[in-house]
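PROTEIN DATA CARD
Card holder: Riboflavin kinase
Chain length: 215
Origin: Laetiporus sulphureus 93-53
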Amino acid sequence: MMLTEATPQLVSREERPPAPLRTNTFRQTRPDIVGPDVPASPFPIYVSGAVQRGFGRGGKDLGCPTANLPDESIAPMSSVTRTGVYYGYAQISTEKDGKTILPEEDSKVMPMVMSLGWNPFYKNERMTAEIHLMHDFCSDFYGHEMKAVVLGYIRPELDYTSREALIEDIEMDKRVALKSLARPAYERYKSDPLFGTSHPRLWRARADKSILCSR
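Structure generated from the sequence above:
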């Protein structure tokens, strides 16, 4: 089968698949809203983990700072999803090592986009899950627990000939995510029970249970 822009790649942590090159045709035909009016299988998918330091290029190079999840956080998505860009909601714990560090404003449930894949433009050697929360944080939150509910798929992972083209698509991803989430069946996930549990261990327990239910 010929690889095209519309051919998303199955998630594989062992082998980096080839990524199609992004073209102007793809950019011009992108929809403003993606997904059905109600999240459909395999969504919702729940993930959680402690935020790790990444490559440091999201904010610096792309104007889109991301929170990197540990490798084990990719596992819940590996058997049911594909590489590419996803959308949903996420929340950061204000506490770290038992101490409140972040202000409450930074702990709200927020819209997010997630890149799951190999970042072919940067030629990554391993697959990563990077989440961009649509909020201006007062400080960094490395080491804090993050929990997220993934509700839909925006587009496949692509390669780029320029950083400007990549940034253009990232900004479009964010607009698509916000419009796609502005539907009643999606908005209700802001109040999902996952976000109501305050202890990191409870987040993981809730996430593990929900992952099984989503398959």
